[in-house]
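Hi P.,

Sorry for the delay on this. The queue was packed all week, but I finally got your sequence through. Input first:
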Amino acid sequence: MNKIWIITRRELASFFDSLIAYVMIILFLGLSGTFTWLVGTNVFLRGQASMQVFFGIAFWSLFFFIPAITMRMIAEENRAGTIELLITKAVSDSQIVWGKFLASFLLVLIALACTLPYYITISQLGNIDDGAVIGGYLALMMLSASYISIGLFASSVTENQIVAFLMAIFIGIFFHMLFDVIAETVRGFFGELFNYLSMSSHFESMSRGVIDSRDLIYFGSIIALGLMLSQIMLSKRNWQS
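Then the structure:
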């Protein structure tokens, strides 16, 4: 666990040293704040104390921001050859993957924590549903962890950061919207199957304050699968080298 935390701190520090963290947080706050308070169906036009506008915007913005965070995590290590240095320090592949995963997840948590003033302000406008707010933030955390695991897998497949970014987007778009579109066009067993595979259906359920074990199992399965595949690809590359 100590080695995982060392890798996590190193990666998290590299985010802030390279300004990636600042750019990501500023863009995330700027985009979510604009649509939450000023543009489109914002809080004032909805006429109710609710965080649903913010959760809807974050659902889409994190879909693009997270691949940009994870694209360099393993791909850059493979390209520069520094991954071998980690291995020579008696660090296992699983520890490398988990350390990088936690660093990315902590960065997202910092960005989400910066949006807490939204909740404080909206709660002053009326009676806000605290259960829905807790469920919404939990849904964003589970969504982020899922896309981080997918992004790490994409980064472990290639040495090119742009390819890793595009691959993560390509894989993610199936869960983000395509499965939902397919579910609406078919009926019966396959309709239910694609609806279950759709990330939006689970996200919307949790953002309303309904914490269902099926939703947690769904997100947990994606996270576990992504991390497992990342570890397999990293082990394969190390064995080949």
